[in-house]
């Protein structure tokens, strides 16, 4: 695992995002955290710094990204689970490792571009259309993965409904 992958792995950890959300009283996703901490510094430069949790939190807190976050007015903690037994809970994130790349699929991603759902490669700042394999940086298409790789990635995503396949699967 290179330094950038390690940085992304640490910042995308559920515990880190949850703790920052709780301390700053905002609702954020791993992607929003990463966008916030990379607002003024590149991933490459950030990966060279031995960051502490406090530094990651403070970088997000001082970013413009925090102004886009939903504010938490109050939190209620129950001493027991109030969700009735038998109600299935859903997996919100799916991580796929393929050919040395890590792709994150967020089931509840607010942005449906380029597909719903789509995959994020944070190390390379790319979004993958899960229907046709097109690669995007922001909203601009920058390339595409092969049909073979798209099918391999789709095959590994089992818990999330995928968009219609737009390439010949033969």
What is the count of β-strands?
Answer: 8
Low-confidence region ranges: none
Strand-residue fraction?
15-25%
| First-to-last CA distance | 34 Å
The whole-number mean of residue pLDDT values reads: 82
Largest sheet: 6 strands, antiparallel
Order of the strands making up the biggest sheet: 3-4-5-6-7-8
Rg calculated over all Cα atoms: 17 Å
Number of domains: 2
Give a verbal description of the structure.
- There is one protein chain.
- The chain is α+β, with helices and mostly antiparallel strands and 170 residues long.
- The chain has two domains: 3-71, no CATH class; 93-156, no CATH class.
- The chain has six helices and eight strands, in the order H-H-E-H-H-H-E-E-E-E-E-E-E-H.
- The chain has helices at residues 3-12, 14-24, 30-37, 43-47, 53-61, 147-156, and strands at residues 26-27, 70-71, 93-98, 101-106, 118-121, 126-129, 134-137, 140-144.
- The strands form two sheets. The chain has a six-stranded antiparallel sheet, covered by helices on one side. Strands 1-2 form a two-stranded antiparallel ribbon.
- Helix 3 (30-37) packs across helix 5 (53-61).
- The chain is globular, with a radius of gyration of 17 Å.
